């Protein structure tokens, strides 16, 4: 949802997991929450790592969600496939401490340790991005699922307000109220709204 709101083409996104049960659950959630919504579509694929051998996509969302044990990803061949399917962006979701002490995954976990293990997002970023490398001003660290859901809901409101403004359904003299997420203003005037409309139109054209 969040990536679509920023203008990413859903067909450039694939969701991978190591278990069929998670695959079917994710498909159900996407079907219920995204497939019908005008701002979203379904990703290109939601499948297992084993079924995705020899394939790639621009962005991979990899679910390694486990409660206690490492499971199938301990197989080094499966691990290599999981970590090498993304062309531009790989996002891994799971409990770091579950995998950190696994011998087979040691080198991979050491690479993750060099980066921030928490999810951080930039609300005014877009695709294609105009942000210089290293410019992380006003980034937000996502604390949990509920926090991320709140952010997505506020961004949906922003997109809807932008559409209304673009269609002249809001009076030109009416002031647009600022939309704040975690005390960060993401839209407070007509210029900001039209910028979001432009990004959204580019996404629809793709």
- CATH homologous superfamily of the largest domain - what is it? P-loop containing nucleotide triphosphate hydrolases
Structural class: alpha/beta
Number of helices: 7
Number of domains: 2
Radius of gyration: 19 Å
| Overall body shape | globular
SSE pattern: HEHEEHEHHEEHEEH
Strand content: 15-25%
Explain what the structure shows.
This protein is α/β, with parallel strands linked by helices and 206 residues long. The protein has 2 domains: 2-117, Rossmann fold; 139-205, no CATH class. The protein is built from 7 helices and 8 strands; from the N terminus they run αβαββαβααββαββα. The strands form 3 sheets. A 4-stranded parallel β-sheet has the order 2-1-3-4, with helices on one face. α2 links the parallel β1 (13-17) and β2. α6 packs across α7 (190-205). Residues 170-176 and 200-206 have low confidence and may be disordered.
The gist of it:
With 206 residues, the protein is α/β, with parallel strands linked by helices. Helix content is 37%, strand content 18%.
């Amino acid at each position: 949802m969040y990536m679509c709101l920023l203008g990413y083409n859903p067909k450039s996104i694939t969701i991978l997991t190591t278990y069929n049960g998670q695959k079917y659950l994710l498909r159900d959630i996407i079907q219920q929450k995204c497939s019908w919504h005008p701002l979203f579509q379904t990703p290109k694929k939601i499948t297992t790592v084993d079924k995705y051998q020899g394939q790639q996509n621009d962005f991979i969302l990899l679910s390694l969600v486990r409660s206690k044990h490492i499971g199938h990803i301990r197989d080094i061949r499966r691990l290599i496939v999981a970590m090498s399917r993304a062309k531009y962006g790989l996002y891994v979701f799971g409990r770091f401490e579950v995998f950190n002490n696994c011998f087979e995954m040691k080198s991979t976990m050491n690479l993750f340790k060099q980066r921030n293990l928490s999810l951080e997002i930039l609300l005014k970023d877009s695709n294609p991005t105009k942000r210089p490398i290293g410019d992380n001003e006003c980034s937000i660290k996502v604390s949990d699922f509920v926090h991320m859901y709140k952010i997505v809901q506020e961004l949906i409101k922003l997109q809807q307000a932008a559409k209304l403004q673009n269609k002249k359904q809001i009076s030109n003299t009416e002031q647009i109220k600022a939309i704040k997420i975690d005390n960060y203003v993401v839209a407070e005037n007509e210029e900001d709204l039209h910028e979001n409309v432009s990004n959204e139109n580019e996404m629809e054209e793709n």
